Structure formats: C-alpha cells, structure tokens
Amino acid sequence: MTFEQWQDDALSSVLNVTLDNTNPKRLQRIHLADVAQELNAEDGVQALITPSTLERVLVARLDEARVAASGISVFEYLFASWQSVQGVIGNLEGAKGRALDPEMRRARVATMEAARALLVSYMGLALQIPDMFPQTGRSGRKVLGDIVLLAAEDDAKYQAVTGSWVQQIAARFADDGLEDVVAPVFSELGMRTVMQPDLHSLLRPGFRRVLEVLESLTAHPPLARSLTQTQAFDAAENAGRLVQLRSTLGPFLALSGFPSSDRSIATEYYADAPSRSKADREALHNGLRSTTQVVQTALFTVFDRLVRSSPDARSATLQYTLRTAATNAHRAAMQMDATRVVTDGFADNLAAVWTRLAEPFTQDALLKKIARVDPDWVTLRALRTASEGGLDDAQHETSAYWRDLTRVNADKQAADAYLQKKLEAPESGAPSFIADCFFATASALHVGPMATIGRYKNMLKSIGRMRSEIKRFAASPELLAPAQRASLPMLLERWRGQLNDMEREKIALDAHVLDPRRLGSILVFYRFVMCFLLRQVDAQRAFPQQPFAMPDEGSEGDEASMPDAWRMLPEFLIEDVIDFVVFAAVHVPEALTDPTAQVGHAGLRTFDDVLPLFIITFLARPALLSNPHLKSHLVDVLHMLTYRDPRENDDHVDTLGGSLVQLQYHPSVERFQANLDANQTARHYLVPALLRLYVDIERTGASSQFYDKFNVRYYIARTLRSLWARSNGSYVATTQRFFSQQRSTATTGSVSRDLHIIEQFVARLMTDTTYLLDESLSKLALIHELEHRAPQDAEDNVADRLQEAERMATTYVSLAHETVHMLAFLSRLSPRPFQAGEVVGRLAAMLNYNLKQLAGPKCASLKVRDMKERFAFNPRVLLSELTSVYIHLGLSSNASPEVARFVSAVVEDDRSYSPQLFADAYAILERWSLKSPESLAQLLAFAERCKEAKVDSRLVEFLEDQAPEQYLDPLLASLITEPVRLPTSGSVMDLAVIKGQLLSDPRDPFNRAKLTVDMLEPMPELKNEIAEWRSRMEAEYYAAAQNGESK
C-alpha cells in the first residue's frame, strides 16, 4: 500500500466518509459522490482524500442533508472524528508506530495532525458560531455538558475533553476568539449547576464533578484568561441577584451549604437537629464544614488561576468582585430583600476566596508589605475606569458605591471635594495588586460574612422572643382576656412549630457562622486591617515596622491634625473589625485565641497585642472617629473581653452580701485582662478614655440617643468594674490619679480638657443615677400593680402592658445598680469632684429622694414576685451603696469645706431630707447585716452632723428673704457667693450655678447662645459687696436669735 492509499484509507476511516463506493470495506461509510466527481474531473484520476482535499470533504460531510441522514449533530460528528484521529496518532506514536520506517511514521503523523487541527478548528467554530452549521441534534455545548457531567471519570470521552481536547482548543483559538469558544461551555456548565439539584446541592455528589470540570478547564492559562473575557463574565445587566444566576462564575460561587442557598440543608440534613444532642449536631456541622472547605478550596484555585493568567484577567476578576459587592450592597442594610441580592452562600464563598488570595501578605508575621496598601486606593482605583488605570465598570456602579460610602471622619460634601481633587491631580501610578486585593477582600467580607452575621444575630433575637412568648402565655394564660384563652392551645402548637423551624435554620447556619476555621481566617485578615488603620493615625506613620506612637490630639473638632487620607477611608473598615470581634467573643471566643490566628511576633500578635492597641487608640483619641456608635462598639469589645458576671461582683463599697457566685469564664477573658494589666498604653489611657466616652456619648445624633447612652454607659461601668477588680490595683491607682490630676502629662493632651471631662462625668453620673433609679422604682411599682389585677375585657391589654413594663424594668434595674455602684466607688476613691459647688446640691437632693424611696414608708410598693431572679433587683444593696455615698462625701478626718458643703446640701433639701430617714435606713441595714459595725457607726455620725447643720440652714433662708434682687441668682433665687457675668447675655449668676448648668447644656440659659466656663467674667467688686452685706445680715440674724426673736 502506497502512502497516498494509506492516507486516503485512514482519513476515510476517521471521518467515516468515502470517495469510492466500490470498495467493499467502505460500504458503511457516507459516500460523498459530488466531491468524488469534482475531484475526478479535476485530476483525471481516482479521487483520494488528502490533506489538501480534506476540508472540501469535511464541508461536504457537514451538508445539511447528510447531517440529517446521519442522525447525529455536527458537533457530535466532529468530536467523534477527532477522537478517532487521536486514536490513530496514539497508535503511530506508540508501539505500533515504532515498527514503521521513521520517515513514513512522521509523514503519517503529519497527515493525522493536519486532520486533527482541521477538526479542532471546526469544533471551535461550531461553538463560536453554531448557526454556521445545520442545527440537527444536540448542540456542541450540550454534547460537552453531557460528557463532562454525566460520563464516568474513566470514560474516554470525559478524559479526552478534560485533557487533550481543552489543550488543543486553547492552543488553536488563543488569539482567535477563544472566549467565544469557551463561553457556551461555561454557560452550559453553569446553567446545569443552577437547574439540576443533583449538581448544586452539597448533599448530592454531583457538585464535586462540577468543581472538577471547572478546575480542569481553568488549569490552562489561555482558557483561564479567556474566561474573564467572555461577555457573561461581568455583563452590565448582571447586577444584584442576577450576578449569581447569569454571570459565568455565579452558579459555581453559589454552591453552598447555607440554608438560604439550599433548603434541603435545613429540611433534610438538619431535619431533626433541634432534638439531637450537642455532640450529634457538632458531628453534622463538621461534615458540612468539610464539604464547604472542598468547595471553597476549588473556587480559590479557579480565582487564583484567573488573577495569575494575565494582567487583564486580574483586572477583570477584581472588577467582577468589586461590582458584585457594589450591586449587592443592600446585603449589609438593616432591611434587606433577600430575593434581590446574592445568597449567603455565594457571598461567603466570594469572601473566602479573596481572604485566601490575601494570605500571602496578611499571614506575614511582620506585615512587611503593609506600606503597599495605599489609603487613597478609592480615588486611585475604585473611582477610575479601566482606561484611566482604575477598576470602575462601564456603568459606574462600583464608583457610585465607593463614592457614597460613609467616611471615617468626613461628610459627603468634604469627601466629594477631596475625591474630585485627587481625580484631577496628576497620576502617581496605580496601586499594587496587594492594595487591590486588600480592598476587594474587605468589601467582600462586608457584604458577605459580616452581613450574614448581622442577620444571624437578628435570628437569635427572634428565637429568643418566640421562646419567651410561648413560655409566658403557657405559664400565665390569665394574662389573656377570657375570650382569647380558648384558642391558646392551638396558638401554642402553631408557635412551637414555627420555633422548631427557626431553630433548625439557626442550627444550619451555626455550621458556617460559628466555624472556628472560617472565623480564624477572617481574624487574620482583620489583624492586617487593624494594623493598616493604626498606621494611618500613628504619629510617625511607621507602624508596625516601628512601635506605635499615640497621635497628638488637637482642639475639639480640629480636622487639620488628621491626615486627609485617614478621614476619607470607608467607615466599614473599622465597623466590621469591631462587629466581628464582638461576635466572636460572644459566640466562639476560642477563635480569637486560636494559635493559627496569632500569626504575629511579640508586639504584633492578633489578640494579645494588636486588638488591645486598636481599641485603646480609638477610645483615647475619639476625635479620629466622627461616628459615636463606632466608639460605643469599641466599649462592647472591651466589655465582652473583660466580662465579669454581675453575680460575682467584688465589693468596693463595704456592702456585706451573701456568698458570691463563682463562675468560670472563657480563658480568652483572663488572657485579655492579663494583657491589659501588662500594657503600659492601656494603663495610661484606658480609664480616662472610658470616662470621657461616658460624657461624649450623651449626644449621638440618633433619634434613640437618649436610651442608647444608658446601654453604652452600662458597658463602660461594667468594664471599669472589671478593671478596678484586678488584683494588682493598677487601674484603681490610674483612676485616682486622673481624678486628682496627679499626672505629668494629660491623657487627652490638655489639662483643662481633663478637668472638663471630670466635671462633665460627675454631672452625667449624677443625672443618670437620678433618672435610672426613678424609672426602675416606678416600673417595679407598675409591675406590682399589674400583677395584682386581671384583664376586664379584650380591650384591657394587661399582658402587653406587663410585658413592656417587665422589659423596661429589666433594663433600668441593671443600669441603675451599676450606676449607683460606680457612684459609691468613685465617691470613696476621689470625693472632691462630687462635693463641687456646681453639682453638690443636685447630688444631695438625688440621694435624699432615693433614700426615701428605699427606706421610707413607700418601699413596700417595690416588692415584686421573684424580683431578684426576674429583674436582678436588690433594693438592700442599692440602699447600702447609697448610704455609702453619704459616708464618703460627708465624713472626713479634718473639717474640710468640701465636706461641710455636702452636709449643708443634704439638710437644705426640704423636699426629702429628714433625720428620721437616716434612722429608718440604719434600721434596715442593721437588721439585714448589710454593713459592718464600723460603717454603721459612720452612718450614725453623718446623721448627727446633719442634725447640727440643720440649725444653720435657717440662716440661708433668712439671707435669701432679705437679699436685694441683684444679689440672688436669677435661676435658683439663691444668694450669690461668686458672681460672674455671662458675656453672651449680660446676666449675672453665681459661678457654681452656671457651671452646673453648662455641664448639661453648654449654652447661655437666657438667650441660648454658645457659652463655656472660660468665657465667664468674674465680678470681684460685686463679690466684695455681697460678702460685706452678708456679714452684716449674719450678725443681725445671730443677735436676733440670741434675743429669742423668730426670724
């Protein structure tokens, strides 16, 4: 057989066609008579199939009539022919071929390679432009979809497609529209993944095949690069939920075990989870977590290949991620329509991928590459289009998202002006991929895991409310009106069913949200974020390569002292770190201390070093943050990591209680506190910073600010109590030095500011104590009343009123107990600020009023069933601590004017003060052994001092009756002792009175103009005039008293 004859026979065989129908061996092949006739006419000899005639033969075979007659589609035929060619080449290059003459073998291989190249080209065309060919049978995308998803792994077709076929297609079309060739393949794979439960559920094996195919396809750099060039990769119309459904990678990123992504996770996998043991549930979690890790590892591999395949592919992948985050920003909103955004699973997978991509620089112990993250990235990349060297999309959705984000310390007008200035400035070069990766990861975490955590916390609240309602009505059906009680059993059954569904979904979420491995990887990234943020405010801008230097603090609201790049950073960078740490501390504290998350050396360890420094810095320099809620959330972190149960309180104010409850805390709490004890920065700044926030949180700008401040102050008080209880006493000493200003340098950068904070703190503490005690006692009295009456009819909503009163009482009682305790402790530690003239009168009146409530005749109305268990209300402890304040402020070894001022203020309170009040309080304290004999003796001594001072109080009444109007304070009608002029209105007031007024409202009480203490003008001449008049009148008063006259 000649070479030409072999060539004709081989090509005829692989193509299953013939030009010679007289050959009995070829009778089953399709006879191409027209082509044979043309070739015979052209050459005058018997036509043979050669490389030069091969394409004419192939085109004739693909004629519509022949395709229809064959019963298989164009692509099926081309693929089968290609497989046959592959087989022939394999034989020629294998053992059989080695028996041939080398020249002959090379010639035969060359012929087959030419045939293979032609077939590959036509298969690519059939995928690129399917309309070029007859539309009979299955399309190319469906053929390939069936092969890669349905064929067994050892099937020759599956191995061929995922192996040599992909390589040859990639090589042939690398510069000839490869993206159009692979687009239908990825589209088919994605569509089937979405539509077929066996492929998108992690409870079925099919998802593994999907990921294997995806990894196989993207293992070839040209194919990975072309994937990012497909039209569907980041199409303009794909926004919000459509990203998940229609983008090239969307269906694969949606492979997840989250119940919102796959309902069978909750209904099948966790069907009976609420009734199973904790160990059984943990076993279920571990199984699902392992499967999720398989998914996320595969997706990371794909993304890693994309960003490494070419600079353009890297930019496209970044654009896809940023635009996905931008168009799904509502995931982070308080009110979110889940049908319009990507699912939790999609968002979590995207965040996991980018967290892994960031690991080369976030896992670095020394964070050597942190300087490569440009704080101006938003203006340099997010707000610029690709033609400008940026990452914004054609619809500008990415830039709109980043432009509208809340800034760390700038309003929208200032931010827009800064951004415009930066955009107009000459380009200084695009930031590195490290900066791109950092902000892409941060945004993916923001709309992904952090948004999911927010909904998880809301779910916990809903479950808690549902449980409480079921328990309340089941235990007390009398709370309902008679007409409603008949349907209660049916309602309870329905509610329990709903509760079971909610608990099952919550348990399904636990597998992901509480996964220590997942939380640990996020924490590693947030370590980098914290160090990046600290670097921006470091006085030397050199952290962490150099030790952190606390920035100076300018005057209040002085923005000039802050770097502009810092002020313009997105606020969510800080917010997400804080929210994450609080969540982990509450639900998975071991994730915070896991060794895998402590990636830094000493000084840069996540939990031991970076987190404390981060919290202390932004509390100590509150001007850096404009949002008061961020500052309050920092206190949440401190509270959770220094937590001490209220039942285990150490006693600082000589109240003798029963045996204290000894509780076990997670090791992270003791570890964090030990780190604070050893941290010099914490010892210097932390207590003053907390006291300052106690003052500043008075106004948050929110409609709920009046109530919000009490929660923040409660956590501040609890945190301070934990710090004061440390055995080394360092924080007690720090507190005492701050109140007495025994410091070489002011913690806020200004001694006058420190003094102002102290004055404001005392005023706020006193006001809070007044309000919280009043609300607590009034709510308990209301509960006492409601519990002793039944609803009269359906309109008499006793149950709702009682529930609301119980809710408020629980909150107010806790706040009141903690506030009174802090007042008692600080009044002993540093009494002078509480004896100052501007606050002492109101403080004494508050103490007298509440002492009357707790020890007077109305105290019986405070008794509520199980009040200690239900509301943690302990009136005896409150009474003991209030009387401790009297002792701390009203007794002294030397007769100081401050003590005398307090005693006078107590007895001058005509509304509540009476000697009998202290006798009643003494009787209760003694009966219940609430105080030591020494403390009881001190209380008696104070009461005696008050009786002595009461005689002198009549002199005050006499002086105020006789004084000319210009000698009386216009607000309180009290005799002025230190006259000052208010420059804003020209009014004259007593210094103590106006200072007390300015502590709560820094405005002139007469015209509401802004007014501060340093603006007040002393009036020494008037002061001398009043003093001389007072001396004359006192002499007249005592002379009259001696003569027995009644004044």
From TrEMBL:
GO CC term (a single one): cytoplasm
EC class: transferase
Domain U-box: 962-1036
GO MF terms, alphabetically ordered: ubiquitin-ubiquitin ligase activity
Pathway participation: Protein modification; protein ubiquitination
InterPro entries reported in the protein's UniProt record: Ub_conjug_fac_E4_core (IPR019474), UBE4 (IPR045132), Ubox_domain (IPR003613), Znf_RING/FYVE/PHD (IPR013083)
Ranges in coiled-coil conformation: none
GO biological-process terms attached to the record: ERAD pathway; protein polyubiquitination; ubiquitin-dependent protein catabolic process
Localisation: Cytoplasm; Nucleus
Record keywords, A-Z: Acyltransferase, Cytoplasm, Nucleus, Transferase, Ubl conjugation pathway
EC number: 2.3.2.27
PANTHER family in the record: UBIQUITIN CONJUGATION FACTOR E4 B, UBIQUITINATION FACTOR E4
Family: Belongs to the ubiquitin conjugation factor E4 family.
Protein known as: Ubiquitin conjugation factor E4
Organism expressing this protein natively: Coemansia interrupta
